[in-house]
Amino acid sequence: MNPLLTYAVLKDKQREIRDSFPENLRLRTQRAISWIGRAEQAGDDDGKFIFLWIAFNAAYADERDFQIEPPLAMDSFKSYFGKVVTLDADKRIYNAIWGNFSGPIHQLMKNEFVFKPFWKHQNGMKGYKDWEVRFQRELRAFKQIVSRKTNDNTKRALALVFDRLYVLRNQLVHGGATWDSEVNRNQVRDGAAILAFLIPVFVDVMMSHPGGDWGQPFYPVVSRNSAYSGV
C-alpha cells in the first residue's frame, strides 16, 4: 500500500515548486493543503471527514462551471476525476480503488443509508417508491465496473463512490446526523479513511502537472483597493 501523503510532505513539495505554478493552482493547492492539515488534527472521524471534504472542494470546484447555471455535483466530479486518474502515473488512485480500499468501498456501495433515492423516498418525494430497484441496479452496475479494472472504470468507480460520500457529506454538513453517533459510525469512519488517502493524492497529482487546466477557484484573493477600483 502506498504511504499516506501527509500535510508536511505536501507542504514541503508545494513550497519547493509553487513559484512555477499559475496563480489559480497556487491558490487551490494552498487552500486544499491547509484543510488536509486541519483534518490531521481532528480527533474524531466526523471532523476529519468534513475538513477533508473542504479540501476536496478547494481542489476541484471550478467557478466557471457555475457562471451560467449550477451543474450537478456529479458532473463536476466526473470531469475532475477524469483528469487526476489519467495523470496519476503511479496508479495510486487505481490501487486505492481496486486494492487498498476495496473492502470499505464495497461496504459503502451496499449501504442504503448513503443512497440518495432512499432518502428522497423517506422524505416523501414522489417518484422514489422504486428506490430499492434503483439501488440494486446501481449495485449491479458497480459489480460490472469491478469486473474490468481499467482506468476508465476507475473513473466510473470514483464517481459512484463519491456520489455515496456526497450523501454522507450532506448528512453531516446540513445537520442530518448527531456528532459521533453510533448510527452512522461505519460509513463516517470508512468515508474519512477513503478521503484521507485520496484527497492528498489528488492534490499531489495537480502539483505534479501545473500546466493542466485545473479551473478557476472560488473566491480568489482580492485586495480592497482592486475591489473598489473595479480592477
Task: Describe the model.
The chain has 231 residues and is an all-alpha fold. The protein has one domain (7-221). It is built from eleven helices and no strands. The relative contact order is 0.19.
Mean pLDDT: 90
Q: What is the makeup of the main sheet?
A: none
Relative helix content: 55-70%
Oligomer: single chain
**Secondary structure tally: strands:** 0
- Percent of residues in beta strands: under 5%
Helix/strand layout:
Layout: H1 7-17, H2 23-41, H3 45-60, H4 73-87, H5 92-100, H6 102-109, H7 116-122, H8 131-147, H9 151-173, H10 185-208, H11 224-229
Helix pairs in contact: 1-2, 1-10, 2-3, 2-10, 3-10, 4-9, 5-9, 6-10
Describe the structure concisely for a colleague:
The protein is mostly helical and 231 residues long.
Keywords, please?
single chain; globular; 11 helices; 0% strand; mainly alpha; 231 residues
